[in-house]
Request: fold
Amino acid sequence: MKQIISISLGSAQRNYTLMTTVLDQPIKLQRFGSDGSLARAAELVRAFDGQVDVIALEGLTPVVRLGQARYPQDVVANLVAQARQTPVVDGGLLRATLERWAVKRATDMLPGLLRYRRILFTSGILQYQLAQMLTQYDANLRFADPLLTTGLPFALVPRSLAQLEQYAAVALPLAALMQTPPQPRHTFAAQQQLRRLFNWADVIVGDAETVCRGAPANLRGRTVITTDPTPAEIDDLRNRGVSTLVTMTPPLSPERPFVATAALEGMITAVWAQADQPLDEAAVLDFIDDAGWEPTVQHLSSAHHRPTFAFVVHPLTVKHIYIDKRFNAARYLPQRLVEWLVAFAPPLYLSRMRGIRSKANGQEVEGLLLTLGATAREIMRRRPSFTYRRLIQAARVAERRGARVMGLGAFTSVVGDAGITVAQKVDIGVTSGNSLTVAATLESAKRAVQLMGGRTDQGRAMVIGATGSIGSVCARLLAQAIGDVIIVAPRPERLLTLKQLIERETPDARVVATTNSTDYIGEADLVVTTTSALKGGLVNVDRLKPGAVVCDVARPANVHKEDAARRPDVLVIESGEIVLPGKPDFGFDIALPPGTAYACLAETAVLAMEGKFEDYTLGREIEMERVKEMYRLMQKHGLELAGLRSFGREVTDEVIAEKRHLAEERRQKLGLTIEEMVGAEA
Reply:
């Protein structure tokens, strides 16, 4: 049996004895703390010299170079010199490999664990190499070294590796002069600033003892990355609400699972000595591989480890800007100036959406509601790159807050290449939500046509904006269902391409392509609008057929309430909204009934329920199979089509009865029967 002694400058209250087996070699490990006393540590080294196989020194890493400053080597050298027979290790060799390997494996298991996060190191000096590695995740770093080592409340906190090196250039030589390494000092004066740092952080990196001693009582939703937490410290972190605990060392025993990196290096040294080979980096890598050492990821607070999604909206008009309390005062400024200025604002957090629970598995998902500042007009008048930059920022904010898929709402889903560029620039999944939008739109249209006395297997449908991502799929599916479709869009070359595609897919369908909806709108029993004209004019309500249904998918809407009032015999409905399962609370007024969401938002929630954290509906070409899959997932997780709504109000049976009566009167006035109106062109 190999015997290893681990000597730490930390508290003796954390002492333990551990029996384990590594590569079939039984090992006895004992840990002794010196309570910060170098003299006691030296005494322990002398006492065990020649009595054990390896002595490990915890928390001392002389090999790490920080700018022009080095760790006080004399301190370490003096301790090592106390041993004349037993080899002494400090964990530096293993730390350079194991910690990097552990972070890599942890991010493989938890994508988005570190990307764009706010990361606080309790000691950047002791974990400099790890901090170097984490810079590749575009993280925002802070180092608490000055606060914890000086205890001064106004100590400047390094915010980059360069600033940490500048601090180390002063602090480490001073520590060497005093013959003592920097030790944590939790003075009362520094607690408030430390509390602000812990509250700022998404991820906390440091030894568990320091975190538990210096952190506030509430660490809800945080991730902690550490090396050797005791069972009591793990319970403490759990009670504080820590969501995820990543321990960079492997568990060795049920009673005391984790040990310090130096102790692990002592085990490697003791076992590897049998092979009579020098212990170098290559040998350490081989040992880690042979032993199967992996980091340990624990979800301490399951309630806060839910698959989350994000959804991005934007104000449709200037009036919507004033809804946000942060812009209340802007109502006293010229509207055009407000609209122009707010367009440059970074993405803003609106609320957290809670209470959405899948009926398939009972899992609750949470969503983040974010907003851009640009109105629909500002988005359309600017280059796509303007919106791309802000959507990429929004995705990074969402990822930092834990989201793994983001939905694009309103005009953000149609600008430029409809999400493709954004998806290429971010690490979380992106969807326009248009697959479920198509499914919900056609289902709502079908229900509306039936309520108005029409048939869904004959008649004529018109799709305005037919060459867009939503319009093209709607046109193709309507051609299969009805067999007679009018497709409208501004570019004839795209119309011809779509017409040929529909005719190949549905050879018996009649397809009319036109750039002007007015010429044919009077023949349509169903009109689906999937694009917006900011100045209006896409739908001439005066020429609509009696009893026709207009399903207005676009936002802003194409048909205004005052225009529809001229044709009370026509039913104008909004796009198919979805009732989410559970007891949804959006935390923000999205101008829909409680629990009801736009289909694009609902698709993002469905992806989270299904665990499909990937790019889904992107670009101008929506796959029909994805529309069908999304419809199946909608049914699987318990989403339901909301009741029909017209200009924000529910369409009741009384409203339908009145419209059918008025439609029949108008037909009689025109001298037409409903059979003639529906079947004349069939």
Remarks:
- Residues 62-72, 674-682 have pLDDT under 50 and may be disordered.
